[in-house]
Amino acid sequence: MQSPLDAQFGPQLPGQFDFTLLFEQVMLTIVPGGVVVLAIPFYLQLALYEARKVRAGFLLWLKLAIGLVLLATHATSLNLWQRASLFRSDVALAAAVMSLVTSLCIMVILYISHTYSIRSSGFLSLFLTITALFDITMTRSYFRRSRLDTIAALQATVIGLKIGLVILEEVSKRALLPTESLRSSVSSETVAGFWNRTVFGWFTSIMIFAFRNELTIENLPNIVEELNVKALYQQFVPRWEKANKKSRFALFFALLRTLPWLLIKAIPPRLGFVGLQFSQPFLLFQVVIAVGKETTGEVGSGLVGATALVFVGLAVMRVLYQHASYRLLTSVRGILITAIYDKMQRLPAAKLNKMGAITLMTADVQAVEKTFDFLYEVCSSAILVGLGIWSPSLFVGPACFLMLVPGLCCFIISRFLGKAMLSARKVWNEEIESRIASTSTILAQVKGIKAMGLSQMMIDHLQEKRQKEIEISLQERRVRVSLFASIAFSYVASPVIVLAGALFWTRTSNPMNTAEVFTILTIVHISSDPFVSLLTSFTFWSGGFASVARIQEFLCAEEAHDTRETPRQPMTDETSESSEKEPISGSQARLLTPFAVQFSLVAVTSAVMGPILKNVSLQIPWGSLAILWGPINCGKSTFLNCILGEVELDSGVVTVGTKNIAYCSQGSWLRNSTVRNTVIGVLNFIDEWYREVITACGLDIDIAALVNGDNFWVGSGGCNLSGGQKQRLSLARAVYARTDIMVIDDVFSALDPDTAQTVFTNLFGRDGLVRRWDCTVVMTTNRLQFLDDADMIFRMYRGGRVQHQENDEADRSSASGSVHGINELQQGEENDSDSDDDDAGAAQTRRRPTLPPSVKPAAGDLELRNAKQKRKYGDWSLYRYFLSAASGLTVFCFVSCVAISAIAQAMPRIVVRIWYAGHENDHNYFIAYALVSTGRILFNSLNGAIFFYLLVPKTSEGLHYELARTTLFATLQYLGKTDSGELLNRFSQDLALTSQMLPLYLLHFIHVFFILLVDIGVIAAGTSYFSPIMILILGVIYVIQYFYLRTSRQLRILELESSSALITHFTESSSGIYHIRSFRWQKAYLEQLYEALARSQRPYYLFFCGQRWLAVALDLTSAIAAIILVLISVKVRGDASQSSVGLAMYTLVGFTEAAALVISAWTTLETCLGAVSRIKDFATETPIEKDTLKGPEVNSVWPNNGRLDFNCISTSYESSDGSVQKALDNMSLTIHPGEKVGISGRTGSGKSSIFMTILRLAEFNGTISIDGRNSKTVAREMLRQRITTLVQDGLELRGSLRFNVYPFPGLKPSDEDIIAILASLGLEDHVTRHGGLDTDISDLRFSASQKQLIYLARGLLHQQTTDTRIVLMDEATSAMDNDANSELQDLLDNAFAECTVLQISHRPESFRAADVLVKLDAVLYARYAYQKLPIAWSSSRSPHCQIGRAINQDWGLAIVCIDQQDGSTRL
């Protein structure tokens, strides 16, 4: 029979610090047992539908043995309860039976979870742990009651058995996996036990490895299988297809339906965290009460146990919900990036460029991740706010509602400030974009800038734009400081106004005691932050869902419609992706139709240029070579794109024999890979065929000249190759694919005539390689000599007409075809569009502005890898480097102000402690409390003002100048082997970090660091015995952060590096989408995306895991501190007072967050300092052009004759892979004043190297004397400014036409001089019609040939204004047709009649006025062999020519060959 008191439900046994037996038997035995019984069907389902994954081994038998002992123990306990007399009851017997059934269920779960799951059962481990705690409670109760000692002993045995099972469940099952591949591939997290996973013990091994070694992507462990990108995307696709695309939330709900369990999994621990978090104020209340009065040992022990339960429980709940949340975010990231890429492959190219897939997969995906993370925070914040209003009402009544007032005020103020910040940010961003655009343009043309001596001018130009940007940024900074003050007001005013309401309203007759005051302050502290978050959530939601909407709009965008027909497949509205499912081969098509390509009444019209193709009908038979030719902008590329299915037809039908077409564009799409991998693409390597293709494309000579051969990296977009090499490499890729149809778009434009003829004959001649497999080739070209080998010739006219010609007609057309003089050329191009590639349906009525050349930010930044080792250990000198531009006094004032602000933040709590240490009824202390609280607002505002107005502008300006100076004065060799996109990253990403993110993180870190120091002092002051322990805990925190930062730095850099590789894949795929679709490589590139994304997910996910490891370590440290504080306070007491302990406990509530904030802020700051590190390394390690000046000062008119003496000149260059290639070898020659020298030769033969040595752009051995003075004794910038240089690619800067035609320093030409030059070039009318000299050059809408005339105008003005005597021209008239070139040559000959002129050209007719002709024919290592050129000129102005020691006074023209193989010079 049960005791009457124990027969009550309780839960507390009256008069005792114990539970009633009825409560324990129901709540601690029957209810948990019922949960286990309900879980059994899920485990049985697992056993039925899953295969065995783990061998039994000794581990399983040991678990089952312990389970069997547990079963026997519960059976014995049931027997004893049956025989019990005093405490026996029906509930007691039911509880004993349930315990027996539970132990049996535990054995079933043990077997199934061990055998059918690689991961140990988290449910079982958690159940055993919780019930073991329950068993401890019951064991204590049983021992406290007479005649239950035996049952108590059995219950103690149960505790030991359960702990044993928990330990065994933590043992890894990796060794018991059936295959070696599975044992090596399974992640450490998967095989870790539940508690090992919970406290991230498995991650400790990674931390130790990273502490001792350098982390790389390759040595990072695999992540959990549930995050497999391909599997997740395959689950998402059917849910997205079924979604209602008209709904704004279609994508959001499709993601939720794909990941329901990950979403739900975080909810229970999040609710548990909220509950435990709100138990802290009441725990504080009880501890303060206990300190103020005598308590029994049991009560003190109970408070210590409750403290352990609350703080350790908080650590567990926090890590469980955050880890589940971050798993969800990682999964969302993988799904969205894959979905964006998959959709990108099916979009029209024009729409793809406009929709910005790169921005979507970076900024917008991150915003969506934050939206999902914020989803949990909003729900928990709502609960916390509700509890935060209810809980204080127990102490202060209606005054609890006053805590909402500051939050509402802050919300209203923040709304106005938010709008102001958006407006200021928009203006700032526009100025940033303007500076980056100008920088991009300069970087894209840095070679030309250096050649013309404009380096310092461009530095000053960029610095002016940076200063303007900083000035504009101060508007945003002012708003931000106001926002800081608003947020500080919310946190400060809430406790002040609640205490005021209690003191002067609801508790006037019943003053609050110390325990109540600190409890109220703790509740307000816990609730105020969630309330502000809840109010501001609308802004975050709108921003997050705006990103969701943008991604959804992208995924719902209309896809490219492939309107082409095939012989077995009628025209449909399906996309290219759907047509990919049943491709037809060329061999099958040949049996169905005699034609490879057919146009039937095809019409394509553009709103810009009218008809592009007009009722075109033609047939191209299998195996034929069809060549299209015509004037520029007549629609040749549009014609080819119709064959590729990339143009939407207005009418008509295009029929192709197969949709698997090899495509080679004029723009030479190349990925950043090796030469070999570029050629073979995604195909298998066949050595014999590969070598045959390389030889036919003339690449064997180029590859042999490379140290690494075909393992040479071509660079981003082929930046390490010449234009001709890029085109031939792209052509080799098309040939290697060996398709039945090949489309070639003017790929010989960058080749010299000899190389172009050789490659064409090898591939497309009558016995060419491509002809051997009867391939159908459709080609566009303006090299009319190729028409002789064509089977079919089509001439295209402006207006959309395509005419089939016979060979004799083509010959006549090419001889008398439409060539224009300068003025005719301008008139023709006024009426044409900018390019062949205008969209057929472009809704524009006028020509678009033409933008200057620019570079794209590099996706894969090699400097990240170089910085990795440095960032592993950190570098304190970076802080000094970053702050060096600001004065020491400014830095000191800022740090001092932050320290005072941190003290001011703690002062209100300290005032309350003093107040309630014996002056509870003195309301003057409340006034002091309110005043010091207000001081926090003032100091926060002052911090921001000093930091943003005085310190940040100086650092931002200084770092930018270092970058600009280093970049524009770097050696050309360094710039040549450095990706321009990486340089742009320094000016965009790194400067953005150092001027926007880094200042915020630095301010935040210094602020929270001082707050943490103050908190430690406050906690240590809680009791004298606790001070040394707090010092020890401080040491533990230091060790934790030191250990953690080593890993987090490396993981963060790896995450950035792998993300860069991912962006590279996106960028390259986007720019080459025509090629990917024509080759039908979509699936292969999607698989590459899966691989790149999987590599990126590993450091991304493990970085989150590192953060969770840190959170657990700090939470457990905080729990230890709380336990020790409570233990000392209630057990030892000493000099502890209620107010001091209350203040210490109140501070401990936020201590974990403060410590975590310090370390996470430090980690983020260290990551941002990576940008400072890269800038510093770039500024200190980049090779700079250094002048070692000797001899007399250079006079103002030097050089006044123009004589050039080359004496044994040798030079070479180093490519990006480290290989050294010779350019010139022991060259000697003399050029007399006024001579005109023509330089020609094969692509890559070293023509430009001659100019580079003259301008000292390349280091060389030997001497170059100009008018008798060694060029090395003249400053480079001065040397280049004293020579008029017209570079091959021209130079177009962002700005006005006036700035572009004369960007040089010194005296400027008058408007009359500029207009006269423009008039001589036929540009005056165009410029006048479009706004004049002060119009932005992009708004003048110059065509390619018009731009080249602008470059010529710049050269003419420079020579005229500065009276230079040496002129260097590199392909200065390459964009002109023959007649226009002839007129320009006459103009240039007259303008430069008194000058020494060196001219590089592929056109022999450009050398008609030359006195000397130098032909370079590159062989291995830039050796030169003589090859006689046909000469069409018979006279020259020069009476003699001297080259080296060879002199001939009788020849009017000297044809010179420099044979550097044997060092001789021949005439």
Could you write a compact summary of the structure shown?
With 1467 residues, the chain is α/β, with parallel strands linked by helices. It is 61% helix and 9% strand.
Can you walk me through this structure?
The protein is α/β, with parallel strands linked by helices and 1467 residues long. The chain is built from 49 helices and 22 strands. A 7-stranded mixed β-sheet has the order 15-16-17-12-18-21-22, with helices on both faces. A hairpin with a 3-residue loop joins strand 1 and strand 2. Helix 16 (357-396) runs antiparallel to helix 20. Mean pLDDT is 81; it is low at 570-581, 812-822, 824-848, 859-869 and 1418-1467.
Strand content: 5-15%
Specify the overall morphology.
globular
The Cα radius of gyration reads 40 Å
pLDDT average, as an integer? 81
Helix/strand/pairing category = alpha/beta
Strand arrangement within the widest β-sheet reads: 15-16-17-12-18-21-22
